[in-house]
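Hey, weird one. I pasted the Sodium:proton antiporter sequence into the form twice and got a warning about non-standard characters only the second time. First submission, copied straight from the form history:
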Amino acid sequence: MLRKVLIFLFITLFCTGQTGFSQNVIFPEVVLKNVPTDVQVQSDVELEYLILNKDTLELHQAGDSYVMNVKLENDIIKFSNPTIEYEKPLVIPGWLSLLPPLVAIVLALIFKEVLSSLFIGIFIGAATIGFYGGGFTGIFAAFFTVLDHYILNALLDSGHASVILFSVIIGSIVAIISKNGGMQGVVNRLIKYATNRKSGMLTAYFLGLAIFFDDYANTLVVGNTMRPITDKLKISREKLAYIVDSTAAPIAAVAFITTWIGAELTYISDGISKIEIQQGVVISESAYGIFINSLAYSFYPVFTLFFVFFMLYKQRDFGPMYKAEIKTLKDGITADTVTNRELEEFNPVKNAKIKAYNAIIPVFIVISGTFLGLLVTGISASNTELLAQGIDLSNGTWAAIGTEGGEAVGFFRKLGIVIGNADSYVALLWSSMAGLAAAIIMTVSQRIMTLKESMDAMLVGINTMMPAVVILILAWSLAGVTESLSTAEYLKAFFGSDFSHVWVIPALTFVLSAFIAFSTGSSWSTMALMYPLVIPLSFAVAAGDPNFSEMAIMYNTIASVLAGSVLGDHCSPISDTTILSSLATSCDHIQHVRTQMPYALTVGSVALFIGVIPTAFGVPSLIAFAVGIAILFLVVHFVGKKV
């Protein structure tokens, strides 16, 4: 009897112990068949592995939870421990994840209409998820999911909302400084330098280089400022959009101090940590130092800047851009070529004072205010970070920045760290609001327009931005669909097996990054996906081959992610930066993509075959730059036709 009681108690205690703690596996909403997927595991006790479908899966600590890599062949999920809690994901074929972006891109290029193309792409993604989740009824429900889930989520994202606000405020500023005569004053001043088509294009080019610290601010300010001048000089909107788009992102990608640097340094730092853990080596070089060294391999952004200059200086074009330029020279900027009809309302009012400072001061406030906002938010974030690390701040936050390793760092390195920690969205909002306030105050105080007229002009400016803002929202929604369908993960897995030879790694990284950015419309998400994969991979593969320098291959690979992302953005009709370029210049969006793509692919090909691949074999990057720039000059000279 006693023995039976003891056995009963033992079983009871054992069962209680098993159920006293919880284990929860959190699958993504969608898992692609035979595609490795990271899955989060939450547990009250320490775990080293889980057994799923008879496969032993290793767990890795990730903060307060664990992560395991899962590959499912079908929708059967069976853990060895029956107490594990989980919600069953939808398991779909991987190729279906490519349909939404590819359909949207193909339809946009065929029909030259982007709104319906983006909507159809989003619907196909939502319908795919709906069908696997609820059968044919799920397809009908997906029509409404497009609005109440994907578009709504795109609007609820604070970063997206900031870009929308910044865009419409810039539009408002442009409307007010156009109505009060300030823009005409700027045009009258710049026209002294922009006396012909060549000087007009070069003026836009150098303005694009000057606003190097943020691609959004660069695109909207330069595009809106130069548009009246280039219109008068019969420079096509397509050409202006190309100049704006091909200076904004490339200069932001290679400048030492930009709003991109924070994300890049985070990814590089995480990659270095993985290398140190996996390879058992210590890399003393900082993330910022690695970024600076990688610039020696940033072929596409640098080649693009030279290529644009050659095109403008030689006044030569080819392909669709040549046709657009010839048409504009013949017909001028007609009503049909203007995307926003409301621009006709931007003519100065009757009693306007044609004074350049009415435009220069608000625009200067936007530009300088953005930089100041980056410093303020960056120092604030750095202060919080240093306090959390227990760093001595007795000499001030600036003095303590960069001293975590015990060594003093230079001014520009500190500045790079500060701007890397900054909140660029907040900085852009602050500066644009300050610029708008200045424009209104200057207009009303000089009695050029009443306050009511200024507000009406502001609404006109907001209205001109609406078509492009709608495209932006739909593009972000499509990006949300591709994220739900793990499109980028499928592409990574599809190409992953080809990472075998050392020299292949930078080249394939460049191509894959470009294709992912083209398909998803986001260089930032491409970097987030590719950096964690290729940084440790490039170092590990190169370290195993005595014929290659692991650090040089890693620098090349890091630069290839960034360069490929920019190339993909330049070619994609669903890219937010490409859409913003069309918005700022009032260029038909599909025409902008069609005219820019041949140029981007030309430069991308030279970057790959003259820059990325040869330097992976050990050719000095200076030689690659010299040869590549010379080839691009010859392409412009011999392929381009005089306009």
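That's the output from the first submission. The warning seems to come from a hidden character in my clipboard, not from the data itself. Residues 9-20, 336-343 have pLDDT under 50 and may be disordered.
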